[in-house]
């Protein structure tokens, strides 16, 4: 074979290898939740809340977070994070909660929606002053007798404030669940995948 033919064949082989090579993997950083609280909205009497008004309960330092849809009460977990990288670099985000307080005996769907503001704190947030929310952007099915999977929070991560702060609401599509909060020593963990 002629020398120039060998060079051409080698060059073509190199181009083929480059064309079929997989893209570099995403980098990942993990961070715990900075704050969390159960947001309680109900029209029934709540003996432990100021004036018996469930909307006035501050639950930001409880050891658990509760979500409930149905009956007379609507509860969701509000959880705040800070991105470890600029939002424009984020390709994917997931949030992993440690475990249900008690395994669910029936399957449940967990929803994630974006809080419209991160301007809240655990000492004062209530059903009356909690941030507004959008529609759920991700839903995860959890089979009976299993713990929650990593929940997709990509949309909220990509919409984080310039300083990286953002919050999500975690709820139940139907039913009730209880998970450990950061005050129990088991915060939710944000996994950020970026380039």
Automatic annotation (TrEMBL):
It comes from the Eukaryota. Keywords: Secreted, Signal. It holds the Pfam family CBM96. It is found in: Secreted. One of its GO terms (cellular component) is extracellular region. InterPro entries: CBM96. Residues 61-185 form the Carbohydrate-binding module family domain. Residues 1-21 form the signal peptide. This is Carbohydrate-binding module family 96 domain-containing protein. It comes from Trichophyton interdigitale. The lineage of its organism: Eukaryota, Fungi, Dikarya, Ascomycota, Pezizomycotina.
């Amino acid at each position: 074979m002629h020398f120039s033919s060998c060079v051409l064949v080698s060059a073509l082989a190199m181009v083929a290898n480059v064309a079929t090579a997989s893209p570099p993997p995403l980098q990942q950083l993990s961070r715990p939740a900075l704050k969390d609280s159960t947001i309680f909205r109900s029209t029934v009497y709540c003996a432990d809340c100021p004036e018996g008004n469930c909307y006035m309960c501050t639950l930001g330092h409880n050891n658990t977070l509760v979500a409930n849809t149905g009956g007379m009460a609507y509860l969701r977990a509000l959880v705040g994070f800070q991105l470890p990288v600029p939002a424009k670099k984020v390709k994917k985000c997931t949030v992993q909660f440690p475990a249900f307080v008690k395994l669910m005996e029936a399957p449940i769907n967990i929803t994630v929606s974006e809080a419209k503001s991160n301007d809240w704190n655990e000492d004062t947030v209530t059903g009356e002053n909690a941030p507004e929310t959008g529609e759920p952007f991700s839903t995860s099915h959890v089979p009976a007798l299993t713990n929650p999977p990593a929940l997709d929070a990509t949309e909220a991560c990509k919409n984080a404030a310039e300083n990286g702060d953002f919050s999500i609401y975690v709820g139940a599509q139907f039913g009730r669940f209880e998970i450990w909060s950061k005050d129990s020593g088991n915060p939710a963990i944000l996994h950020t995948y970026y380039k």
